[in-house]
Amino acid sequence: MQITTTFRHMESSDALKSYAAEKLGRVQKYIDEPIVAQVFLTVEKIRHIAEVTITARGITIKASEETNDMYAAIDAVIDKIERQLRRYKERIKGHKPGNESEERKVRKTVLTAESIEQQQEPVIIKSQTFSIKPMSVEEAVMQMDLLHKDFLVFTDATTEDINVIYRRKDGNYGLIEPQKG
Question: By Cβ atoms counted within 10 A, which residue in 5, 17, 79, 110 is the most buried?
Answer without folding.
Answer: 5
